[in-house]
Amino acid sequence: xxxxxxxxxxxxxxxxxxxxxxxxxxxxxxxxxxxxxxxxxxxxxxxxxxxxxxxxxxxxxxxxxxxxxxxxxxxxxxxxxxxxxxxxxxxxxxxxxxxxxxxxxxxxxxxxxxxxxxxxxxxxxxxxxxxxxxxxxxxxxxxxxxxxxxxxxxxxxxxxxxxxxxxxxxxxxxxxxxxxxxxxxxxxxxxxxxxxxxxxxxxxxxxxxxxxxxxxxxxxxxxxxxxxxxxxxxxxxxxxxxxxxxxxxxxxxxxxxxxxxxxxxxx
Length: 267
Ligand SMILES: NC(=O)c1ccc[n+]([C@@H]2O[C@H](COP(=O)([O-])OP(=O)(O)OC[C@H]3O[C@@H](n4cnc5c(N)ncnc54)[C@H](O)[C@@H]3O)[C@@H](O)[C@H]2O)c1
Hints:
- The protein is of the alpha/beta class.
- It has one domain (11-260): Rossmann fold, CATH 3.40.50.
- It is built from 9 helices and 7 strands, in the order H-E-H-E-H-E-H-E-H-E-H-E-H-H-H-E.
- The protein has helices at residues 2-14, 30-41, 53-65, 80-94, 118-146, 167-187, 205-211, 214-224, 235-246, and strands at residues 21-25, 45-50, 69-74, 99-102, 149-154, 192-199, 257-260.
- Helix 3 links the parallel strand 2 and strand 3.
- Helix 2 runs parallel beside helix 3 (53-65), helix 2 (30-41) packs across helix 9 (235-246) and helix 5 runs parallel beside helix 6 (167-187).
- The longest helix has 29 residues, at 118-146.
- It is globular.
- Residues 25-26, 28-32, 50-52, 55, 76-78, 103-106, 127, 154, 156, 199, 201-202, 204-207 line the site of nicotinamide-adenine-dinucleotide (NAD).
């Protein structure tokens, strides 16, 4: 009998985003793509946003082939009007907004701070931090109208610590953690929870590409030793954590910076 109950519980948990409308940014690749699939498998209507139409379309094809519900919206996180239009499209299409995974981002160019140009600094801050600010701003407005919701932002292990030659990325991701906590404080009492996931190194296309460069190959080798599970992550492992944070099962979790990093930050 207990076994039957457990099976029923796990079936409910597997569909714990049933009927929720959830925006995913950076949904065309890596963590965003895998997470969008996890959310759709859990019953969500997923609004797939990316700057790449090809990527967003590919993710939509995968979700639909599994019987899931998805729609694509092109948006550049560096453009406020695009972010505003993305949120409007989600509400127009599905009538409400229940969740968002603000995940789109670019990585460091790989230079020491004194060699970074102002343009490189501003580009990273604009996409990786200001883009998340705009997402939260317009998502909160829509969620208030829907009666509440949950937001998860993708920060990084370097939202808490630093690695060399990544000042713009480290600063932006520390900013995402701060922004998450600030938004949690503003909206926790209004039925909107805001949390962050902090991935360790995850095997996505951008990491594979960087691994071909000797500097990053050496850095990743050093960092791998500090992932105490003995390996780097798979994109869907971040999606599973985000799925839980977006679900009602995480109803008492607000303002957290959740490490999903194979033990990296704990070492
Ligand atoms: N892969 C890792 O090891 C790792 C570790 C920690 C944090 N992260 C974070 O996870 C997130 C996803 O990274 P990923 O590894 O899946 O990378 P990825 O390059 O595979 O995917 C990023 C997606 O974001 C999109 N994107 C880039 N700039 C955009 C913009 N201006 N507007 C809209 N979309 C844009 C890209 O087109 C791409 O589809 C990022 O925020 C990254 O900083 C990744």
